[in-house]
Amino acid sequence: MFIIGGIQKSTLIDYPQKIASVVFTQGCNFRCGYCHNPELLSASKTYGITTTDEYIAFLKTRLGKLDGVVITGGEPTLQSGLYEFIYKIKNLGFSVKLDTNGTNPDILNKLIRNNLLDYIAMDIKAPLRKYTQITNVNVSIKDIKNSIKIIIKSNIEHEFRTTVIKSQISPEDIIEIGKIINGAQRYYLQKFIPSKILDINLLNEKTYTDQELQNICNNLKKYINNAEYR
Predict the structure, then answer these.
(1) Count of alpha carbons within 13 Å of 177, Cβ hemisphere only?
(2) Is 131 helix (H, G, I), strand (E, B) or coil?
(3) Which of 46, 103, 120, 190 is least enclosed, having the fewest CB within 10 Å?
(4) Which residues pair with 190 in a beta bridge?
């Protein structure tokens, strides 16, 4: 099964240096308060606007116009049909970028081993000791660590990223994350934007200033050469 919660026909910003389409999968195993796609969290509510067959048919009309496909969520690795879906996309000649929270390292490993991924973006929600606090669920830290290791050791382009709310994640926490992902290709600090989010109690929360974020990024460079904020 592969439940599509929505699609974006084209984007210039979600896949570095490529024109891509975005597929949003339905269902997530985290409940982060700042989640900006809360309508995708429940696997039982289908907001799908197309089937996988319809989406593949759409891609066939975009040959030569799109470079790749971004599969995001929700959490795509919860979808039992993920492997088959990506296989069909790759057979059409498109590059595939996968967004994941890293809770399914075995699936990541399988996709990588079979050359089905061209770019991986993994969200690092917090330093490991704070994961349950930020995600509001019990998390297997072993799985998170394994996913990080798999991604860094792969020959695939990748990035890690953390959404930053000042009251939740301190500069010291971010440096701690930097140590965990030491050697990663890229690490992005993402400004928290108080708009459509899961927990409306966070709407008054703040992120760091540009200067504060730049200072943190400068301190991260001893662990990750390419550390930036956006």
Answers:
(1) 27
(2) helix
(3) 46
(4) 163
Give residue-wise pLDDT tens across range 23-38. Answer: 999 999 999 999 998 8
Rounded to the nearest 10°, the torsion over CA 204, 41, 168, 107 is: -150
Question: Residue 66 gets which letter from DSSP?
Answer: B
Other Cβ atoms within 10 Å of 167 Cβ, number: 11
Residue of 74, 64, 93, 96 lying closest to 83 (CA atoms): 96
Residue 47's pLDDT is 53
Mark residue 183 as left, alpha or beta (left: phi above 0; alpha: psi -120 to 50; beta: remaining): left
3-state SS class at 81: coil
pLDDT single digits (tens) 83-122: 999 999 999 999 999 999 999 999 999 999 999 999 999 9
Closest among 136, 113, 112, 133 to 122, alpha carbons compared = 112
Backbone conformation region of residue 136, classed left if phi is above 0, alpha if psi is from -120 to 50, else beta: left
Q: How far apart, in whole angstroms, are the C-alpha atoms of residue 200 and residue 153? A: 38
Q: Which of 2.130.10.120, 3.20.20.70, 3.40.50.880, 3.30.70.100 is the CATH number of 4-229?
A: 3.20.20.70
Q: Prior bond to 73 cis, omega within 30?
A: no
Cα-flanking dihedrals φ and ψ of residue 96, to 5°?
A: -125, 125
> For residue 146, what are its two tokens?
């394994």
On whether the CB atoms of residues 130 and 158 are closer than 8 A, the answer is no
